[in-house]
Amino acid sequence: MRKIILFVLLLTVIACETNEEDRITYLDDIAATEYYSKDIIPSSYGDIYGMWNLYSTSGGITGGGYEPGFDHLEIKKYGIYGIVSSGRLIDHGMIKVEETDENAITGLKLSFVSMSDNESVFDVTVYADVSHTDTLNLIAPCCDRYNFHFVKMH
Asked: What is the maximum span of the chain, computed from C-alpha positions, in angstroms?
């Protein structure tokens, strides 16, 4: 009986430990209204919020993408984003909703503008396509630029 109780206690302790990847947000230190007083993302794109795991890139001159140097993208309401690498916030800033061209790619045109002291790793303008609630594709608006493909973490 003692072995069973010890085993259950051990499992409980292991289950209660939190992993750095289980954090809800890396952007706690940035006030919700740092850049805007109200949310800028249309409600039809509400699934864009959350932590996104980068699983591939594509595009560029060869079409094969590149190694971007980060693991995750976090998007919060009020136009806030963060770039995470190895469990550390390495870049953050504001999102701008841009006017789309009549013949443009479908999706919401966004610019990610770095506000961090570090060199930006994600200063881009893209079309956001949240085709499913668990998939985010950021597609470059023109030739020889890179596309980013994410899956939702939580």
From this structure: 71
Res 8 pLDDT > 70:
no
Strands 80-85 and 72-76: antiparallel
Task: Name the band, by pLDDT with cuts 50, 70 and 90, for residue 131.
Answer: confident
Q: For the whole model, what pTM was predicted? A: 0.78
CATH architecture of 26-152: Beta Barrel (2.40)
* pLDDT of 37 higher than 50: yes
Q: Measured between alpha carbons, how far is 11 from 5 in angstroms, rounded to an integer?
A: 10
Q: Where are the domains of the chain?
A: 26-152
50-59 and 146-152 strand pairing:
antiparallel
- Tokens representing residue 104 in the block: 């443009």
Q: Virtual CA dihedral for 150, 49, 47, 110, nearest 10 degrees?
A: -70
